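Agenda item 2: zinc ion complex prediction
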Amino acid sequence: MVALEDWGWDERWAAEFAAGPGYGLLPARLIEEQRGLYQVVTAAGERSARIPGKVRRGALSPAGLPAVGDWLAVQSVDGQPVLAVRHILPRRSKLSRKASGEGLWEQVIASNLDSVFVMTAFNADFNARRLERFLTVSRESGAQPVVLLNKLDTCPEPEPFLDKARAIAAGTPIVALSAKTGRGLEALAEWLKPGRTVGCIGTSGVGKSTLINHLLGTKLLRTAATRAKDERGRHTTTHRQLFLLPGGGVLLDTPGMREMQFWDVDQGLKKTFEEIDALAPSCRFKDCRHGAEPGCAVKAAVKEGRVAAARLESWLKLKSESDKRRKALEKAHYKRTGPKR
Ligand code: GDP
Ligand code: ZN
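Presented output:
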């Protein structure tokens, strides 16, 4: 038996569940999603679940589909090992981004977070504008943001950075810590309580993985890629995105949360290089990188002196850095969660 309270179940959820069309349904929390197959935790243990195709096609937008962190009402269907998802309980908080592809669909990347650790670091990694942006995203989610200033061990004079953070955080709690040495981590106990769900966002390199590994402990990480049977009886490696912390609390770590910085960077690039962004739709190739491609409108504009060559040069440099960071991050995530099968 699983104590759903450890996973965040409480009287308010129980009331919501009872108010819904609950007959014959069980509460379950979504801990992982992979190509339409959901891994959920129920009072009876972990199970696979699916949305009936009719419901999936009827969803008005991706936000209408289950997201990691959701509390669901699931149903056991006679003779089938996979549960059917019948209902998503109203989300208390959600971190969203624009869904990939055309159109302006909202995609929920994590839900029902109680707090979001907005991570930045001392010294060169301290970035006031990013901190502002991540705080905005977290506040919008409905979860409580907490600013973490990491790499305290490298900073002989933390006060000026703390002052800057205080000016931006406007009353949001600030914790100075070192994910590497463990110094200051005890202050996080305030948010890492049994049944409370936290997630971590911040620019690449600030120390999110280091902190998460520290919180999970190596033992849990090794068993993170557990094996479970899917509906065909095949074994598949599962990629957990919701973890019970050994000291109590629930940690949400989806690739989406880690990638948030990248749309951030790309948006930033667009804003900073408006003239290049405005020309891009005129390039022959939709995904033109303004490098060696033929029919590039940006290179043509540089040739004609309408865009400064130096601007294109720095755009290319920043874009390639951003791509490199994204690749490194994907690789790091792949290593942490094991090979996809
Ligand atoms: P992420 O991209 O946010 O997940 O960052 P990582 O956890 O991968 O950390 C990036 C780099 O910073 C790594 O080299 C870490 O060893 C280092 N790092 C992380 N936390 C600390 C810290 O508290 N102190 C110091 N000195 N280095 C840290
Ligand atoms: Zn181009």
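Discussion summary: The two ends are 29 Å apart (CA to CA).
Owner for follow-up: CH.
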